[in-house]
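S., here's the first fold you wanted:
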Amino acid sequence: MDSNYSADDVANAKGLQFLALSVDGYILGRVFKAFLVRCQISLMIQIYDYVCSLHEELTFLRLSRWTKVKGLYIITRYIPFLVLIMDIYLYFAPNENPDRCRMVISIYACLTVISLLCSELFFVLRTCALWNNNRIILAAILSTLFAVTVASLIADVLSVGDSHVTISMIPRITGCYRTSHGFQGSIPFLLLFAFQLGLISLTITRAVRNWRVFNSPLYEVVVKHNLFYYTCGLLLSAANVLMQTLFSQTAYRLVCEVLQYFVLAILATRMHRNLWHIDRQARDSVTDAYSTS
């Protein structure tokens, strides 16, 4: 490589090369020689989940009533595709303006926070339902969620403003590059970890108290879904805090970020569909029982 390039230019280029996609002449249906790690994970997770659950997805969208929760489902389900589009644009669109890079990264950060917010809202509503929509619990959870969302957005935007956002100075390597400031980048995940820890505590407390009182399959499904979702969320949040703190200058942190955004969205929408199908089957069985009697 030309010795005219500085060590920083070479380091930035290596980061971009790691995030670059090498198609090597192959088009759809052929094997990729190399694949952008971040986009590969997000794209493959989304496509695999969508193809595997296409029938259930169409059934739910066609037969379920139009409610606010259904609108939340659609946003949660499809906003990760916008995140993916922004991700691809960020690393592949020719860009010679660092300020424009900073703006695109800020939009990307806001979309990821919105995606996490929508995923969490499903289980906020379920947790409140377990507590019989207690107004004090509802107000406390929603206030905390609002504070966590605002703080995460501010932390993300400030981290972009304080980061070293640049383009590659070496020809044929395009895209924007941003360094991370360790702990500052872990703040949103740390806040999310604390919020999810509070919700899983509320779920466990309510489940222990009412396990023998509510002996219905639907109640058991809601509790199990909540516990599984929060367990996954806590593990992913903890992993992201560690990655942002210990590996802030590597691409490994990007892989963990992608996993959290997409896995939580998939879990939230899949569990909502599953709950809807169970409720629908229960209603159909009751209707059949009445019709045969």
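And the second, which I think is the more interesting of the pair:
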Amino acid sequence: MKATYFYLAVFANILCLCQNYTLRSSVSWAVSSNDVVEDADLSEEVAPALLVDGAGLWKQAYPSSSVLGDSVENPGELVKPESENVAQLSSRLFSYRLEKVKSTSSTPPPHQETARTARYIAHYSDWGHLATISTQDKIKGLPFGNIFSVSDGPLDNSTGVLYFYVTPMDNTVTDLKSNPYASLTFSEAEGEFCRQMMYDPEDPRCARLTLTGKMVEVAPEELAFAKEAMFSRHPVMAKWPVGHKWFFMKLELIQVWLQDWVGGISLIPLEEYFKATPF
């Protein structure tokens, strides 16, 4: 009997130690202390690290659908906060409200329509890989790549001109001050088409587009459209810290390079590119 009471006592102590923790994807966080909330550094200098929407916290809290299985429709039903402190902390740290952007289920154009395919990829891509010539000490003069959110206009208004919202604090922007020429690459693998067709991103049937040109600051008369183009597709950008001196740039095209099928690549004349439509 004494041994039984001993094990019960140990079990009770373990329960007491664990009552202030909540399980989130096999990782535990203490949620009972207000010190965490009060000590959180929410200054503008720290804010860029917190530039995530509610989905970021959701990913920390709940497993992906591939792990849960198709039978689970609402992950929120699996684990619910046991303390209001969780909501309080998340509402302060992850304060950028998730704003939905209308998506498209449009299918890619036939691969024979190369100019239209290029405009389709440029318009429906939300981000791309920008390559510059580096000014960093260890790789000065060598290629340097970086990811940027882009937009060629609101979803219902494609221009073919790619706009950027950048900060002078970015290494890429420093590179562009020295050499404004750059290449912007997109992959059709960003969307659902290649996954649905089971095409590897390097499969030539999974189209890739590289736009090469000169990066320039957007002129005052074009700022209103650049702002609409970027913020309509990336709403959270409008709330990024003003202290980082964000400004708009665009890519003035020199060459349009496309591979969207087997048998070689296409160099699309700029006139054909701008004349085509992605819709």
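Why I say that: The first strand starts at residue 21 and ends at 24. Residues 2-18 form the longest helix (17 residues).

Talk tomorrow,
H.
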